Structures are given as structure tokens and as C-alpha cells.
Amino acid sequence: MVSVIVQGLLIPFIGTTLGSLCVFFMKKELNRKVQRSLSGFAAGVMIAASVWSLLIPAMEQSQHMGRLAFLPAVIGFCLGMLFLLLLDVVVPHMHINNTVEGPKTQLRKTTMMVFAVALHNIPEGMAVGVVYAGWASGTVDITEAGALALALGIAIQNFPEGAIVSMPLHGIGLSKGKSCFYGILSGIVEPIAGLVTVLLSSIIIPVLPYFLGFAAGAMIYVVIEELVPEMAEGEHDNMTTIMFMIGFSLMLALDVALG
Fold first, then answer.
1. What is the largest CA-CA distance in the chain?
2. Strand, helix or coil at 233?
3. pTM for the structure as a whole
4. Which residues are CB-contacts of 163 (< 8 A; sequence separation ≥ 6)?
5. What is the pLDDT of residues 162-172, one digit of tens each?
6. Angle, CA of 160, 128 and 188, to the nearest 5°
7. CA distance 43 to 145
8. Which of 7, 83, 104, 157 has the fewest Cβ atoms nearer than 10 Å?
9. Which residues contact 213 (CB under 8 A, 6 or more apart)?
10. Rounded Cα distance, 256 and 258, in Å
11. For residue 226, what are the CA distances in angstroms to 96, 205, 220?
């Protein structure tokens, strides 16, 4: 069981790593349209994962509350969004869609972008950790396949995220090796956050529906604050909508097929 949990926690990190490795195979910075499309795809995956892998299980596990079964999910969801909002206010960083000018300014702002991505990877790691903790406890209706579906979904959306971090770093003069390293570094917080969550399972399991809602709220906050502005930046492009549809449908299929 321990090896299964460790492997599950590492899957999203592998997605970020593979995306960061793109810097070795692409000569130029990601095209803005491509970056926006990838953001749309990631947004679709994260919203579907939040609903089917987190919010719905939270409500299912609270059925003993009758008509108030929605309450833990709603409370956790709001707390998750407020927590990320608080981090956005008190922790210095920049939003992913900010534009940059000048080599020194680019380096400073891109470094802050790496930090922002790392910051917002925390709730994704927590989400995987919460689900695996629930599965390992055997006391809630979460299957190993369902936990794997969430880990795979987040890994898929982490792939473009890794490229979005490493490619601009190389574009402003960093070597491909360093650019890849910083891209990978931005994702290392995910397995750490997931592991901490699993280690705290004795505290989490009794209030698991609240933590599932919390993880969902934090992930949705990232979609609203980072990915949606990225999708809408520049000229109107229907491809972002199509990529959102593909990402959402893929995550929905994974959750149903594996869950």
C-alpha cells in the first residue's frame, strides 16, 4: 500500500518534469496561442477533477447528514478558495499571465512566476494526498483506481505547466539545463504537499469531506485567478474553448473509467 501511495503522489510531479523537458526539444518560446490553448486544456482538467474527484465524493460521504449533505463540501470549498486568496495577498509573487519587458525584468518576473506555479501546485498535491489518504483508510468510498484517475488528470495538466515555466526561462538566456531544473523545481512541492497530507491522515479522515472540498476550492481558485485570464489574453481564439472541452472530457472519462 505504501508503494502505491508513493507512486500515486509522484505521478503529477512526473507530468511537470516531462513538460519541463520540452525545453530540450523546442528551439523557441511557446507561441502565445499555444500557451493559451494549453491553459484552456489545464483549466478543463482541473475543473472536472474538482467536481468528480473531490466535490461529488465529499457530498457522497456526507449522505448521513440528509439534506445538509452538501454542507461539508461547501464549507471546505469556500475555505480552500479563501486560503489561496490569502496566500495571493500575503506572499509576493506574480500572476502567470503578466507580461514582461527587458532581460533583467524578465528574469525577476519569470522567477516570481516559477514561485507562483510552485505555490499553486500545493493544493493539487494536497488533493492527491487527500484522496489517497481516504483510499488507504478503507473507511470511505474511494477506490485506488479513482485516486489514480485524479493523479493522472493532474499530471496531464502539469505537462503544459512545466513547459510554460521552462521555455520562457530559456528564452531570456538561461541554459536549457537550468531552465529545465527550475521547471522541475516548481513541481516538487506537489509530492511533498501530498505526502504531508497522507501523514496527517489520522486527523484528516474524520473530516475528509471538508478536506476534499478544500482541495477543490483551492484548485478552482487557481483556474479563476491564473488560467482563465491566460486563456482570455490577446485576440479572441476559439481554440482555447475547444482545448478546455477536451481537457474536461478527458478528465471526466478518466474518473468514470478508472473510478
1. 59
2. coil
3. 0.80
4. 19, 20, 22, 23, 26, 30, 38, 183
5. 887 888 777 77
6. 55
7. 22
8. 104
9. 54, 55, 58, 72, 73, 74, 75, 76, 77, 79, 80
10. 6
11. 6, 30, 10
